[in-house]
């Protein structure tokens, strides 16, 4: 959608068009992410909670609210997103270690 309209990610034009267009965005599968989270839960224990990148069920809402965490190619995380995720994982590990 954005590529088709030649919109630069997170530009004012991107958000203007995103808000008014009748475009429907869908999340792709989270298979890889879910495998990693399951591995972390298995390693750290079922009570560990990882609060990573905030997101909504609606991708449009997520891009409007949390665009700073996503890369310009719409396929991954930005530096800020990686830092946030790293902090979430570190906090989960530290929290798990406090139990022992």
Rg, Cα atoms, Å: 16 Å
| Structural class by sheet pairing and helices | mainly alpha
Task: Count all strands and give the number.
Answer: 0
- Low-confidence region ranges: none
Helix count equals: 4
Name a few traits of the molecule.
100 residues, 52% helix, 0% strand
SSE blueprint:
Blueprint (H helix, E strand, L loop, with lengths): L11 H9 L10 H14 L14 H8 L12 H21 L1
What can you tell me about this protein's structure?
- With 100 residues, the chain is mostly helical.
- 52% of the residues lie in helices and 0% in strands.
- It is elongated, with a radius of gyration of 16 Å.
- The N and C termini lie far apart (49 Å).
In short:
The chain has 100 residues and is mostly helical. The protein contains four helices and no strands. The mean pLDDT is 81.
């Amino acid at each position: 959608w954005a590529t088709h309209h030649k919109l630069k990610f997170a530009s004012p034009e991107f958000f203007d068009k995103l808000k008014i267009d009748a475009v429907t965005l869908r999340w792709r599968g989270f298979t890889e992410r879910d495998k990693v989270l399951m591995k972390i839960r298995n390693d750290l224990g079922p009570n560990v909670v990882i609060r990573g990148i905030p997101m909504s069920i609606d991708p449009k809402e997520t891009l409007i609210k949390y665009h700073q965490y996503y890369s310009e190619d719409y396929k991954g995380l930005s530096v800020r997103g990686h830092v946030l995720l790293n902090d979430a994982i570190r906090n989960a590990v530290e929290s798990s270690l406090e139990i022992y």
